[in-house]
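Hey Z.,

So I finally got round to the guanosine-5'-diphosphate thing we talked about over coffee. Here's the setup:
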Amino acid sequence: MVLDDLGTSLRSSLDTLQGKTRLDEDDVEEIVKEIQRSLLSADVDVSLVMELSDSIETRALEEEPPGGTTARDHVLKIVYEEMVELVGDSTALPLEPQTILLAGLQGSGKTTSAAKMAWWFSTKGLRPAVIQTDTFRPGAYDQAEQMAERAEVDFYGDPDGDDPVEIAREGMEATADADVRIVDTAGRHALEDDLIAEIEEIEREVDPDRSLLVLDAAIGQGAKDQARQFEESIGIDGVVITKLDGTAKGGGALTAVNETGSSIAFLGSGETVQDIERFEPSGFISRLLG
Ligand code: GDP
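And the result:
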């Protein structure tokens, strides 16, 4: 089955349907409650959870299981389809020359993700470069340079520069030989006007093919405002969820995906450059329901 790693309590309520060919309202209600519990504890936005459980409930009661399908498998299929609909496919990332702009708050994992993504593109046979424009956070240049070295990818930054837009311009010229340029930007502790103004200017300068929002998996409800602001200022094409090796299940990122009308591009799960994978819906859904 597509989802073999469901949460224990959801699995046991589905198991009570074993052998049944028809569902009654109580069965469906119990399953929907379990799904709600799992998703809310994974920090998925309440209104999204309600929307999802309404669709599951309606479909489970109205649709007839195809001949030979047990009630359990029928519900499981509906749950899976509705979850895929919510989570979406991964952000399209053609393996071709392109410029990617990274946005996000300080500490979300942008610099780490820039090097990880560059490493990922290098495993696909492309030549990536990281351009570091963060002149705000002390140590950002050294960290980015070291990580690019570990990823064995080209790097451009200016440890003495104080104009991120100029660094971006110079970086685009200096990395002319690269196929994929990943532009790291400065974050702040909170969304401040100067951060937004700065990233808008960088966006105009580098004219990215796509802009990705980097979010810590533990972001929770805070994801909504952030996502909306970045979406309004530069347009967000996809989300990178970091620190999934921690305890958070990443439900907040779904709020961001919903808010920006985008999708998830990558998942980060550690501090080394190889700790990255392309988003794939079913593993992430299992995690949310776990
Ligand atoms: P930035 O301020 O957005 O550039 O964030 P950084 O890339 O500097 O990351 C902030 C901290 O989170 C650093 O200590 C990173 O090592 C750590 N970090 C980033 N991504 C991950 C991840 O996927 N897992 C873990 N455990 N730590 C991460």
